[in-house]
Structure formats: C-alpha cells, structure tokens
Specification:
Layout: H1 5-30, H2 35-38, H3 41-57, H4 65-84, H5 90-113, H6 116-143, H7 150-172
Helix pairs in contact: 1-3, 3-4, 4-5, 5-6, 6-7
C-alpha cells in the first residue's frame, strides 16, 4: 500500500499532520509561542509536497519542479528572516527566488526528463542569481551598513572572494575540445585502360 502513489501521498499528509500536532502540543504544554517561529513552514511544506507530486506524476509532471522550487526557496528565506529578524535582507535575497530558484527548478525539470539542454539553461540562471545575491549582499550589508551582525561582515567578503575565485577558475579551465572527424574520402575512380597496340597494322621491314 505504501509503495503506491496514493500510499505515498497519504503517508506525506499523515506525517505533516503529526508534525503540526506535536508542534501545537508543545506550544500548549510549555506555554511557548512556537507559531511565531514556525509559521514559514506553511510555505516550505507545500513546496516540498509539490516535489513529491512531481515525483509521483512521472515525466508529465516535470514542469511542477518550477513552482515547487520557487515556493520552497521562498519559505526557507522567510524561515531565516523570521528566526533572525533580518527582514531587510529582502533588498537582495529576492535574487534567490528569481532567477536562482527558477533556474534550479528548470535544472530539476531537465534532470527529470533527461534533457541536458534544460539542465545547462537552468544552472546558468541559478549561477546568475547567486552572483546577483552576493553582489547585492556585499553592497547592502557592507557598503550601506545594512547588517547588524558582526558575523555577516565577515561572511560577505568571504562569499565575494569565493565567487570571484570560482569565475577565475572557470575562466582558466581548458575548454573541451571536440574530436575532429576525418573528412569523408571519395572512392578513387579506376583509370581507363588503354588497349594494347594492334601489331597487324605495323609494316614488315624490308
């Protein structure tokens, strides 16, 4: 039963309900307001369930990877911001939603369909989004002094150095050379054979 698509969906829904029930029970027993911390899970869990739906739907459900990646990434960003109070990070964290998460979703879709062109396109969009995120983070956190955490002031220069090193190594990496194929050769035409000289036409010597 659990190996069928219906059984897997039922198990996922059941685990979600058990987790939420335990969360609310701890809130009542301990007198803690866990809802203020855990409400972004209402965004993360549907995103993960979309990935489950894609896995159960086969190749026809591959496009679900795009909204699944977008919703899950948005929920994770909200979880971080809600836990730290760093809501101003939206000034550059939007780049993780678009184009990074959509690029990753495109790559997942391509991997699900075994389409290497989609994988390359998706990873290209994801790399662009990460670059925008790092550059924006350095600008807003360090140049404008948006960050309040001293750890962030060390983290962003390290991320900038890592991104620059990645592009330098990628730039100096030898390009893959495609093997040259030999040109096709035409079959040689046989030379026309010359008939032997006719000895009857030769004059006898005197």
């Amino acid at each position: 039963m659990t190996g069928t698509p219906r059984g897997i969906v039922t198990m996922a829904v059941g685990l979600t309900m058990v987790g939420l029930g335990m969360l609310f029970l701890l809130q009542q027993l301990l007198g803690l307001n866990l809802w203020d911390i855990s409400w972004p899970l209402l965004v993360v869990v549907p995103g993960l369930l979309l990935f489950v739906a894609m896995a159960l739907g086969g190749h026809r459900a591959a496009p679900i990877a795009l909204p699944a990646s977008l919703v899950t990434t948005t929920g994770l960003i909200l979880f971080y911001q809600n836990s730290t109070g760093h809501w101003e990070s939206w000034t550059y964290a939007w780049a993780l939603v678009f184009p990074t998460s959509l690029g990753l979703g495109r790559a997942v879709q391509g991997a699900w369909l075994d389409d290497h062109a989609q994988i390359r396109e998706g990873l290209g969009w994801a790399r662009l989004g990460v670059v925008i995120f790092v550059v924006g983070g350095v600008f807003f956190e360090l140049v404008l002094g948006l960050g309040r955490d001293p750890l962030n002031r060390l983290l962003w220069p390290a991320l900038l150095i890592a991104a620059g090193a990645y592009f330098l190594l990628r730039r100096t990496a030898p390009a893959d050379e495609s093997p040259t194929q030999p040109l096709p050769t035409l079959p040689a035409e046989p030379l026309p054979s010359t008939p032997p000289p006719d000895n009857d036409d030769e004059e006898d010597p005197l």
